[in-house]
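P.,

For your records, the input lines for the assembly:
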Amino acid sequence: MKIAKHSPVGHGDGDAVVKDALKLMMRRIEQPARRAFLQRSMTLGGLAMLGGCSITNDFSVEAALMKVSRFNDRVQGWLFDPNRLAATYPESMITRPFPFNAYYGESEVREVDGDAWRLEVTGLVADKRSWTLAELRAMPQQDQVTRHICVEGWSAIGKWGGVPFAHFLQRVGADLGAKYVGFKCADDYYTSIDMATALHPQTVLALTYDGQVLPPKYGYPAKLRMPTKLGYKNPKHIRAIFVTNTYPGGYWEDQGYNWFGGS
Amino acid sequence: MSRTSIPVIGLSADGTGAQSSATASIRPASAIIDVTIHPAWMRTAHWLNVVAVVVMATSGWRIYNAAPFLDFRFPGDITLGGWLGGALQWHFAGMWLLVLNGVVYLTLNASSGRFVRKFFPLNFDVVWHDLLDALGGRLSHADPRHYNGLQRLAYLFAIADLALLVLSGLALWKSVQIPLLREAMGGYEGARRVHFYAMATLIAFVAGHLVMVALVPRTLIAMVRGR
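Structure tokens returned:
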């Protein structure tokens, strides 16, 4: 809409606009050598500018970028200090209202029946039984006021409370030497994290937001809150947790977001 | 010459900035290296840096567009990556080129002595004098091996600005892991602004740089073939 408004030629066809501009310029550039040089360099410039469409769609470039992204996963795993705590803030600094964010709009938030809900635990764990919300609430709880950083760049401070995830993993007898913990969610979202982050003291299986039962828009009945990772790594409406050595990927990660996604 | 393995640097020429290239050209063949304006490693670093900066800026614009904190967005056509995820992949791949190339450039520049020779002395008088000359259209570019005061200031600014871009970017990427750097940038949100405005001033430098290249086109030739 904006582009059409500002288009000096008055039609939406970008190629035609460029051609018109070239024609106008060529008339003013008489020397043939200079004209050829300019024409060539403008084509090169045009190609570079089209990068978003043409270069990225090239399979080999995409594969190379994905490889660098996996390399960056390893670098981040190496940079990650399991004892380094994210900054905490006074409650007065909580962002109100805390922004809603998901791969769908706020009107499509899933309503989960907390009474019927069970948290499945599978994979490399000793105890594969499922957990009720009441049982999770009976476990030790921990609060945090931390900064949520979105992959889009914005950030917001919120308050989450719940079961320290390291405690939960120990309780279910998880193989703490396994590589990954994966999550499947009631909104069909899925993601996975490294074991080191899963065991971080600020990684919490959150059941509350700002002292209240976790509202649907923030992931009722349970979400994983990690102030050491970007927002998309923090799954909401969790229905199943599994421990594995096989790379599980994730909803956004499979499309190109960096898997480690650490802060 | 004895302390470097790169003979094309042409120390003898750099030592006497006033020497004209005409004098050099009538010397015997053995002195041809004296006309070298930019050594090969420096030209390579320059053009790799151009690639890195173009990738970082155009992908960065698309990342900014995902959550703009000012009242505008960059036109999608001049951004790289196609969508946020693609732009992030380009940005976090380009950063390695920018940083590694920058480290190699700074190391060779410092160890060869070129950094001190080319950029110093730099003081207010030199810059002021050359600024007045430039405004009066009298600033000489007779010897492209010699950077005038404005060039010294501009290129040092570009180096410092790129360093700030890398540091603020690192603060954004690893805001939890590197708390000292994060706080030095004014927190996570502060680092976003520092990163953005450092980009904006780098673009301003590039614009001025391109205007100067257009006004003195043989500097472009020198940056391509070295003389």
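Two observations worth noting. The first strand of chain A starts at residue 120 and ends at 123. The interface with chain B takes residues 3, 14, 48-53, 55-57, 64-66, 68-69, 72, 76, 79-81, 84, 86-87, 147, 149-155, 227-228, 252, 255-258, 262-263 of chain A (CB under 8 Å).

Regards
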